[in-house]
Amino acid sequence: xxxxxxxxxxxxxAMCMLTVQVAAQPTPFMIYGYVSxxxxxxxxxxxxxxxNLDTGVEWQAETNASxxxxxxxxxxxxxxNATEILRFNVxxxxxxxxxxxxxTVTSEELNYGGIFNSNVTLSVPSQQTWYFxxxxxxxxxxxxxxxxxxxxxxxxxxxxxxxxxxxxxVWFYANQVAQCNVTxxxxxxxxxxxxxxxxxxxxxxxxxxxxIGYVDATGNEHLVSSSSxxxxxxxxxxxxxxAEKTLDSVDGFTVPKGGRLxxxxxxxxxxxxxxxxxxxxxxxxxxxxxxxxxxxxxPIPELPTLILFSAGLIIIAGYVVLKRRR
Length: 326
Known about the structure:
By secondary structure, the chain is of the alpha+beta class. Helices cover 16% and strands 41% of the residues. It has helices at 2-24, 107-112, 303-325; strands at 27-37, 47-52, 58-60, 62-64, 67-76, 85-91, 98-104, 114-115, 120-122, 129-136, 147-153, 161-164, 169-174, 182-184, 188-197, 207-215, 221-223, 230-232, 240-248, 253-255, 260-268, 275-278, 288-290. The radius of gyration is 27 Å and the shape is globular. The termini are far apart.
């Protein structure tokens, strides 16, 4: 009888331990997607680092040299829980293009078993993208602007907003100063951002003006794109997109050493009320500006550009010397 009782006790304990082990098994949580460039070319073999900002644990997703697909398998309930924030840091194979953004995990995603088709778009090689933020810009800045904010390259801003009163303007600056004279050839700049006019009667009346420019090392402002780049408010009291996808620079321009590339946003043309500019509104893409494909590599021209420039100077110098000898 004692043996039977002991055997029964052992079986009961074993079953309890098995039950605990089964209950402790994490739920598979898959994150996957594709990385591409804005011109729809695939970005094969990207680097995708994902960090749980609540725990500090970082993982690197699996990628392949012949594919732009990435995936990461985690344990739901152990590695990740609902409301925790994942930071994605996606980099092209060359390291020249990158994007950083955050994603808050929902209970629905935990139930479904992952974040599916989390696709990422990087700037075209040679192009760069800066994202609007609400962070204060440091000198040099245009002191006559009502607000001076920074744009961060590769890292999206937070869900914040800047409010302009009628006749006010905000300048967004690249967060790095030019390390030497950086010349942008003439080209098309893509500027896309989100606004909300607070007066319900604003439709067709208030205009938002967008211009490319820069400040030199002493803070003098220079606007280089057409002042006719403006968009009327069409959906007041709601968030709407301002898309200046064909913003032309005027015959190219040079940001001098120590200066900053900048975007001027002006709330003018007799608006009736305030305008809110959103950096990264929920469920929408971030407000951003993308340089032309002829971007030389602000804030420091890339090596091929410097080599070509130097070669050009050598050829010109050689031509001058030969001409003098003749």
